[in-house]
Specification:
The chain is mainly α and 268 residues long. It is built from eight helices and no strands.
Length: 268
């Protein structure tokens, strides 16, 4: 009995604070329910002004705006360099791609023609094929009656001619690559001169006086460098394409001489 009473007393001591807190919370909630709650005012809808929100400009609009800000007097020559350089580069790319020949297939046709119809049949095959490799083959076959040494000399000489034709136009692209940054730098110098003239006329240095000249200077410089970078990429591609064609021409020429020597030794 004493143990039971002691357990009840201990439980009362432990749970008395929790019960008191629960009673206080209940009283507070009852007081809040009895007190009227003021309604919060509804949030007013946000009005967005379409004129304030700036529309995103397209790439073409940005380029046009920068072109005008850079002064068309200095930006136009740079643009002309880009247009002419791209025109020459695209013409060279098309020409060089059309000049590419499957040398292995052509050599096989020439060898079959030599075996079946002789040199004249081989000439017909090379004349009907486009490209510098076929032109070199034609020149070599035309000198076949004069001996293998003359064939080699003819191939070497005409190979130089074909190489010059392949490199046609590269000098103009190189010119525009050098000229575009120069024109940009000229605009830079002229813009800086205008800025210093404004400072001298006003007798004071202020950002508003020099901002226009410096902006023209920076925009023309950037335009010239961008044009030079674009044309340099095309130039390097064309040089690598020409090197590939020249290597094919040299390998095919050696193979043609071997085929002609073999044909002469067999006497067919």
């Amino acid at each position: 009995m004493r143990k039971l009473i002691a357990l009840f007393m201990l439980a009362g001591i432990l749970f008395a604070p929790a019960i008191a807190n629960a009673q206080e919370a209940a009283a507070d909630s009852a007081a809040q329910e009895s007190t009227p709650v003021a309604e919060e005012p509804a949030a007013s809808p946000t009005i967005v002004d379409d004129e304030i929100v700036a529309e995103e400009q397209s790439f073409h609009q940005v380029v046009k705006e920068k072109f005008i800000e850079g002064d068309p007097l200095y930006m136009t020559p740079v643009l002309i360099c880009l247009i002419l350089g791209l025109a020459v580069a695209l013409e060279r790319i098309i020409t060089l791609n059309l000049s590419t020949t499957n040398t292995k297939k052509l050599l096989a046709k020439v060898e079959d023609a030599l075996t079946s119809g002789g040199v004249e049949a081989a000439k017909d095959v090379t004349k009907s094929t486009k490209g510098p490799v076929a032109s070199i083959f034609t020149q070599g076959l035309m000198r076949y009656s004069e001996g293998i040494e003359m064939v080699e000399k003819s191939i070497i000489a005409y190979g130089s001619v074909e190489m010059g034709r392949l490199e046609k136009g590269l000098v103009w692209i190189s010119l525009f690559i050098s000229l575009a940054p120069m024109l940009g730098f000229m605009g830079t110098v002229i813009g800086m001169i205008g800025a210093f003239d404004s400072i001298e006329a006003a007798g004071d240095i202020s950002p508003s006086l020099v901002a226009g000249g410096i902006k023209i200077a920076l925009l023309t410089t950037v335009a010239g460098l961008i044009v030079a970078i674009i044309l340099q990429l095309f130039y390097n591609y064309l040089v690598s394409k020409i090197d590939s064609l020249v290597n094919d021409m040299e390998d095919a020429s050696i193979s043609l001489v071997d085929v002609l020597v073999k044909h002469k030794l067999t006497g067919k």
